[in-house]
């Protein structure tokens, strides 16, 4: 039991130590170099907000062999991170009682749209913000393009959108057909966001761009976030994973989904600070668990908002033709991370995901002796264990489970649910006889059915993969 006590002490105290500026930048560099290698990006930019301080650093070069390193004022396309801005505008409209989450969206559209319902059930505002509208992914229709994705695809998208106007969008919106009842099935939809931009313009009588500037960008001091660059302003080059130079996105729609937005790391760390403001009622509304989900939720257009070993966490991934970025906040630790790579391909998303997990791990785990994590042995049993840091809100944990190669990674397996032993500690005893002696099993602890816990950098029993799984071997 001595080893268990040490393990619990490490977890409980892991989140409460400070780091020097040198240590933070060292962690950033280690993470960025590995990400650069894994993603194939020429350029990696990292921004961190931690303990009220801002850190930014840039690695590599925009164009191979040119030595043109990015800086805090380099413009990148931020793609779907724009959806968080759109979400805040909609959250503001809710708080101002201009709309209601239970409203039929057609209340805020001009013209007739009898097709925007399914068997009498209309699309509501709450369906819009949680990607449950039953609307197609895009307008104009891109089903044909999406069947075969390659480094030619961005050029095909631009050809599809270069003459597509807002009027075309409204006409096509009258023709779309819902494929199920709204509010039931998750289906990521850029169409829904452009529709939101149109609705916001109808609600306020101002352009989407003006609403952004007046209500968010000016307040956050984000002077370098815009839908159109000014004279002399240049967008950084981005590349496909194949190495091919990618075009800049062409769109003549509202821009609410992200096809038009450019920003800088200097502005994005300001946006991290803005999203971490616990006193900003609009920000808090945009992150709220509206559906009272026992697992993850979406707030207003987040990719996911839920729980991690670092407490509450919300993230948004932005994927442009030639760059991708990860934008994440950890409100309970007052920490935010943004990472940009100037490459886009099928493996970029997991490379970003794993890199941010490693980065956050480095920022929150105090260096110490390597110890076994996730389980200990007790007589004839293996005891899987998870202890949530005491300075984080353990009341957010509705369930804890263990999933691994021994149960086909099923988080809902009833035989692998942990039981609460204390407010912040959960355990499960499993007979050793259920595991083959000498065989190595990979596993992770899981909170609320959705949130996979990453091994800390002090764990001695990891599998060395990018997934950073824990291992069990008897």
From TrEMBL:
Identification of the protein by name: CubicO group peptidase, beta-lactamase class C family
CDD domains with a match to the protein in the record: E_set_AMPKbeta_like_N (cd02859)
Gene3D superfamilies recorded: DD-peptidase/beta-lactamase superfamily, Immunoglobulins
Domain of life: Bacteria
Domain Beta-lactamase-related residue range list: 31-348
SUPFAM superfamilies: beta-lactamase/transpeptidase-like (SSF56601), E set domains (SSF81296)
Stored InterPro entries: AmpC-like (IPR050491), Beta-lactam-related (IPR001466), Beta-lactam/transpept-like (IPR012338), Ig-like_fold (IPR013783), Ig_E-set (IPR014756)
């Amino acid at each position: 039991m001595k080893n268990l006590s040490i393990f619990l002490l490490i977890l409980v105290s892991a989140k409460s130590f400070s780091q020097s500026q040198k240590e933070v930048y060292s962690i950033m560099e280690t993470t960025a170099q590995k990400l650069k290698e894994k993603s194939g990006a020429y350029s990696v930019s990292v921004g961190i907000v931690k303990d009220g301080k801002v850190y930014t650093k840039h690695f590599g070069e925009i164009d191979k062999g040119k030595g043109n390193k990015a800086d805090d004022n380099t413009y990148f396309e931020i793609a779907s991170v724009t959806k968080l801005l759109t979400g805040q505008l909609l959250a503001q409209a809710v708080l101002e009682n201009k709309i209601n989450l239970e409203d039929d969206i057609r209340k805020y559209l001009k013209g007739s749209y009898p097709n925007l319902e399914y068997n009498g059930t209309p699309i509501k505002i709450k369906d819009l913000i949680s990607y449950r509208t039953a609307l197609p992914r895009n307008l104009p229709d891109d089903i044909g393009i999406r069947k075969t994705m390659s480094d030619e695809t961005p050029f095909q998208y631009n050809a599809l959108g270069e003459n597509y106007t807002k009027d075309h969008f409204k006409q096509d919106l009258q023709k779309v057909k819902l494929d199920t009842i709204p509010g039931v099935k998750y289906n990521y939809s850029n169409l829904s966001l452009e529709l939101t931009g149109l609705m916001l313009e109808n609600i306020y009588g101002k352009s989407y761009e003006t609403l952004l500037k007046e209500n968010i960008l000016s307040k956050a001091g984000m002077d370098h976030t815009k839908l159109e660059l000014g004279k002399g302003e240049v967008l950084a080059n981005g590349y496909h994973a194949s190495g091919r130079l990618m075009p800049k996105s062409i769109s003549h729609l509202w821009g609410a989904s992200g096809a038009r937005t450019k920003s800088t790391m200097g502005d994005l760390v300001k946006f991290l600070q803005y999203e971490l403001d616990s006193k900003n009622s609009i920000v808090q509304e945009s992150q709220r668990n509206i559906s009272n989900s026992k697992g993850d939720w979406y707030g207003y257009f987040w990719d996911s908002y839920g729980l991690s070993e670092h407490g509450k966490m919300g993230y948004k991934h932005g994927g442009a033709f030639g760059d991708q970025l990860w934008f994440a906040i950890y409100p309970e630790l007052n920490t935010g991370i943004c990472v940009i790579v100037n490459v886009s391909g099928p493996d970029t998303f997991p490379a970003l995901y794993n890199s941010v997990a490693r980065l956050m791990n480095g920022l929150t785990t105090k260096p110490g002796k390597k110890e076994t994590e996730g389980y200990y042995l007790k007589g004839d049993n293996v005891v899987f264990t998870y202890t949530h840091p005491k300075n984080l809100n353990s009341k957010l944990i509705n369930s804890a489970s263990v999933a691994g190669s021994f149960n086909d990674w099923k988080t809902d397996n009833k035989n692998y649910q942990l039981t609460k032993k204390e407010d912040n500690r959960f355990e499960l005893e499993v007979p050793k006889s259920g595991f083959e002696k000498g065989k190595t099993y990979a596993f992770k602890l899981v909170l609320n059915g959705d949130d996979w816990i990453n091994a800390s950098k002090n764990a001695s029993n990891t599998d060395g993969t990018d997934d950073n799984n824990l291992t069990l071997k008897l």
